[in-house]
Each structure stands twice: as structure tokens, then as C-alpha cells.
């Protein structure tokens, strides 16, 4: 009986060890930054042997990629909460998402750096990170495409390019906040809403004045 209990406990521990390691890694990341996170200290924080983390993460880079992938799950959860997938109210929810996005970046600067920085993407990102990052952008692109379906965006606008432009604008504001250029979160949120209003106004004006225009790409 005693032997069976021990075996069950070990199996349960193994199945949950990766999640435990990631949770502790995120805590260390928040406390000490990217450079201060080591697999050795992660093992100590998780109360496991020094070799245990390597069964799940072959290197520190692999660990950082896994944290970034989980952070994209957080971002998708924000999308779910705003109800932004509903085309009928996309303009209102887009502004709600802008605020939620900026707050996430401001409150989790280390995670945000891993999600979009060269530490992960400049050194062969993992397949999991690549898929989750690209899937999040594809979802955002389909949301922007909803503006076209409701007639709020001209047919000649390419939803991929519009998604890249709007996301790049938002990302730039977030980086100015996380890099310490802008100190006030309230100010960054206000600027983000101005940016959202400006983009939506330009799109709507194009619908009203140039509904049949085409964009020629220079060769």
C-alpha cells in the first residue's frame, strides 16, 4: 500500500512539474529580470534537483521561449474578455482591447520583452512560440477584417497590412512605456485611445470619400 502511494505521488509530480517550473520561472523573471533567471536557481526555487528542469527545457533559451508562449495565452485571454470577435461592436471592443493590451505590457514588461524581443525571436524561437505568436496575429487580423465585413473599412484596404500598422502603433507605445521613456501609464493609455480613434477615423473617412479606390504597389 505504501509503495503504491509513492508511485502515484511521483507520477502526479512529473505531470505537473513543467507547469510548476514555468510558474516559478515567471516569478523569478519578475523579480530579477531576464539576465537574473537561471535554470539552477529555478531548480532551487522549485525544490527539485538541478537536472530536473533540463528534462523539460534543454536550455535557458528554451525556457524563455516557453514563458513567451504562455504569455501569448494571456494575450488571447484578454481578447476573449473584451468580446472583440463580435463584428457588430468591434469598434467599441477594439478600444477596450487597446487599454487591456497596454496595461498587460506595462504590468508585465519582462514577459512582453520575451513575446516580441530579440532575446527569443533573434535566436531561433521554439516551434511553440512561433505557432502561438503567429496564431495570435492571425486572430487579430481576422478581427480587423471584421471591419470590412461590416462596411467600416474600404474593400481595397488589406486587413493584413492594417493589422500590422495598428499593432505596430500599439506596440511602439508599449515599448516606450516598458523602456521607461513614458512613465505615466495613464498617459500611455490616453495616447493609445487617441491612436485607436485616429485610425478608425481615417478608415471611416476612406469609406465615405473613396470607397472604390485601389492601392497600387510600386514595382
What does this 3D model show about the protein?
It is a single chain. By secondary structure, the chain is mainly alpha-helical. The chain folds into 2 domains: 1-57, Arc Repressor Mutant, subunit A; 67-209, Tetracycline Repressor, domain 2 (Orthogonal Bundle). 75% of the residues lie in helices and 0% in strands. The protein has 9 helices and no strands. It has helices spanning 2-36, 39-46, 60-82, 90-107, 109-116, 118-121, 127-149, 159-178, 185-209. Residues 1-12 have low confidence and may be disordered.
Provide key terms for this protein:
219 residues, mainly alpha, Arc Repressor Mutant, subunit A, Tetracycline Repressor, domain 2, 9 helices, elongated
Topology:
Layout: H1 2-36, H2 39-46, H3 60-82, H4 90-107, H5 109-116, H6 118-121, H7 127-149, H8 159-178, H9 185-209
Helix pairs in contact: 1-2, 1-3, 3-4, 3-5, 3-7, 4-8, 4-9, 7-8, 8-9
Instruction: Report the structural category.
Output: mainly alpha
Described by strand count, sense and barrel closure, the largest sheet is:
none
Shape: elongated
- Give the tally of β-strands: 0
Strand-residue fraction?
Answer: under 5%
SSE string: HHHHHHHHH
Radius of gyration: 21 Å
- End-to-end Cα distance, whole Å, is 76 Å
The CATH architecture of the largest domain is: Orthogonal Bundle
- The first-level CATH class of the largest domain is given as Mainly Alpha
Indicate the mean pLDDT: 83
The count of domains is: 2
- Number of H- or I-type helical stretches: 9
Helical percentage:
over 70%
| Low-confidence blocks of residues | 1-12
Give me the CATH superfamily of the largest domain: Tetracycline Repressor, domain 2
CATH topology of the largest domain: Tetracycline Repressor, domain 2
Amino acid at each position: 500500500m505504501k509503495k503504491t502511494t509513492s508511485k502515484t505521488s511521483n507520477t502526479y509530480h512529473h505531470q505537473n512539474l513543467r507547469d510548476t517550473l514555468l510558474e516559478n520561472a515567471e516569478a523569478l523573471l519578475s523579480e530579477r529580470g531576464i539576465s537574473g533567471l537561471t535554470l539552477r536557481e529555478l531548480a532551487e526555487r522549485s525544490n527539485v534537483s538541478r537536472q530536473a528542469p533540463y528534462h523539460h527545457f534543454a536550455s535557458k533559451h528554451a525556457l524563455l521561449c516557453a514563458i513567451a508562449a504562455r504569455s501569448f495565452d494571456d494575450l488571447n485571454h484578454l481578447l476573449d474578455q473584451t468580446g472583440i470577435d463580435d463584428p457588430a461592436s468591434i469598434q467599441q471592443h477594439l478600444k477596450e482591447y487597446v487599454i487591456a493590451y497596454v496595461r498587460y505590457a506595462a504590468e508585465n514588461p519582462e514577459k512582453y520583452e520575451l513575446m516580441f524581443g530579440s532575446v527569443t525571436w533573434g535566436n531561433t524561437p521554439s516551434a511553440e512560440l512561433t505557432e502561438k505568436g503567429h496564431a495570435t496575429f492571425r486572430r487579430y487580423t481576422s478581427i480587423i477584417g471584421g471591419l470590412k465585413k461590416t462596411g467600416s473599412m474600404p474593400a481595397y484596404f488589406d486587413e493584413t497590412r492594417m493589422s500590422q500598422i495598428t499593432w505596430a502603433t500599439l506596440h511602439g507605445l508599449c515599448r516606450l512605456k516598458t523602456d521607461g521613456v513614458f512613465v505615466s501609464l495613464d498617459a500611455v493609455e490616453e495616447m493609445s485611445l487617441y491612436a485607436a480613434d485616429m485610425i478608425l477615423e481615417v478608415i471611416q473617412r476612406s469609406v465615405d470619400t473613396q470607397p472604390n479606390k485601389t492601392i497600387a504597389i510600386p514595382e
